[in-house]
């Protein structure tokens, strides 16, 4: 087997590549490397069904920059992967070469070479990419949420011919090629500059009808979601409880969560996600599925198992054996480092 130890430069760059691995083992290698983000498969209809790719990444402040190359592939991120990876970031992808097209949470999106596409890693997607590459940056949600007033960025495409898109790309390219270490005081400036340019590039990308409804519901929706997270195990958590807590009408609350199918669905999905995290976490191995279901507001285990499977595509017992190589963003570089040192693949 070829040597698959990582290459790390003096600037902290990490490189993994299918070139490190024997040809008949590359599909498994690449699937594992990309596992925190996607279920990766060869693109149907292509003659070459072998996955090929490389990731060259580095951390700068709270950002992770990566230069990625790949052949034709399909990426799928469903609720199971979202729950397992527990990533709460935006992925900003500059299409340096090739095209991307597919379904972003039921919206058909296409990005071409030179465009910039934004992926919200808390939302579903299934996309196909032609052979090419991206310059990508992972941005923690809290860095962008306030600056964009919690705008839904999933599937937003910044076109290559726009001046602010070109400025954004130039900034990311400069940041990626930085050859000197930044001082701690520079980290905040780096992030603020990126957010400033990105927000400027985003102006005018939001549909007019959404612009009209945003002031009525976006701020309320975020406050309610935060409240649900903080009270996820509260047995009294319900639409009526939230209506009283925030002193809003039922109609107003429903409008804020219309894309979720209503506030009841939002609470249910949040509870399912929290139950999933408890089921797969090693420290809860001693707790039964029934105990975890009851602790997260589900009084009927049969009903819990059914809606759990509807959301994640597997039963609670099957989920208990699911694990991901990296569950939190600070561990992504560690995931790549640990993975690239595996000699068993």
Low-confidence stretches: 1-11, 324-330, 341-345
CATH class of the largest domain: Mainly Beta
Tally of DSSP helical segments: 13
How many β-strands, per DSSP?
13
- Give the class from helix and strand content and strand pairing: alpha+beta
Terminal CA distance: 9 Å
Order of helices and strands: EEHEEEEHEEEEEEHEHHHHHHHHHH
How are the SSEs ordered, and which strands pair?
Elements: E1 7-8, E2 14-17, H1 26-33, E3 39-42, E4 53-60, E5 63-70, E6 73-77, H2 79-85, E7 89-97, E8 100-104, E9 107-111, E10 116-120, E11 125-129, E12 132-140, H3 141-145, E13 157-158, H4 163-176, H5 184-202, H6 208-230, H7 239-246, H8 250-256, H9 263-280, H10 289-295, H11 301-312, H12 316-319, H13 332-340
Antiparallel strand pairs: 1-2, 2-4, 3-6, 4-5, 5-12, 6-11, 7-10, 7-12, 8-9, 8-11, 10-13
Helix pairs in contact: 4-5, 6-8
Characterise this structure.
With 345 residues, the protein is an alpha+beta fold. It folds into two domains: 213 residues, Jelly Rolls, CATH 2.60.120.10; 107 residues, Homeodomain-like (Arc Repressor Mutant, subunit A), CATH 1.10.10. The chain contains 13 helices and 13 strands. The protein has an eight-stranded antiparallel sheet with strand order 1-2-4-5-12-7-10-13, with helices on both faces. It has a five-stranded antiparallel sheet with strand order 3-6-11-8-9. Strand 8 and strand 9 form a beta hairpin. Helix 6 packs across helix 8. The longest helix has 23 residues. The chain is globular and about 55 Å long. The N terminus and C terminus are likely disordered.
């Amino acid at each position: 087997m070829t040597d698959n130890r990582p290459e790390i430069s003096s600037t902290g760059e990490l490189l993994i590549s299918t070139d490190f691995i024997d040809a008949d083992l590359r599909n498994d290698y690449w699937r594992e490397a990309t596992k925190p983000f996607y279920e990766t498969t060869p693109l149907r209809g292509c003659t070459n069904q072998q996955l090929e790719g490389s990731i060259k990444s580095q951390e700068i402040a709270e950002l992770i920059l990566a230069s990625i190359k790949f052949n034709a592939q399909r990426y799928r991120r469903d609720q199971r992967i979202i729950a397992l990876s527990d990533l709460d970031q935006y992925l900003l992808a500059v299409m340096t070469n090739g095209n991307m097209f597919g379904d972003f949470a039921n919206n058909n999106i296409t990005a071409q070479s030179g465009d910039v596409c934004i992926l919200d890693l808390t939302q579903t997607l299934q996309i196909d990419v032609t052979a090419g590459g991206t310059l990508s940056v992972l941005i923690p949600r809290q860095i962008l949420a306030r600056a964009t007033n919690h705008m839904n960025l999933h599937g937003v495409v910044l076109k290559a011919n726009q001046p602010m898109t070109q400025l954004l790309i130039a900034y990311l390219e400069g940041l990626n090629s930085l050859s000197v270490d930044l001082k701690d005081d520079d980290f905040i400036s780096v992030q603020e500059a990126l957010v400033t340019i990105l927000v400027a590039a985003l102006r005018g990308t939001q549909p007019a009808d959404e612009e009209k409804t945003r002031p009525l519901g976006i701020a309320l929706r975020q406050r309610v979601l935060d409240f649900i997270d903080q009270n996820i195990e509260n047995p009294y958590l319900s639409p009526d409880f939230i209506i009283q807590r925030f002193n809003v009408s039922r109609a107003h609350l429903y409008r804020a969560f219309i894309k979720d199918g209503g506030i009841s669905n939002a609470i249910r999905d949040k509870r399912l996600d929290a139950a999933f995290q408890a089921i797969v976490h090693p420290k809860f191995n001693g707790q039964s599925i029934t105990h975890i279901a009851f602790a997260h507001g589900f009084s009927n285990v049969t009903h819990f198992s059914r809606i759990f499977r509807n959301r994640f595509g597997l039963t609670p017992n099957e989920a208990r054996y699911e694990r991901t190589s990296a569950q939190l963003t600070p561990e992504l570089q560690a995931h790549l480092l640990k993975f690239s040192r595996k000699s068993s693949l």
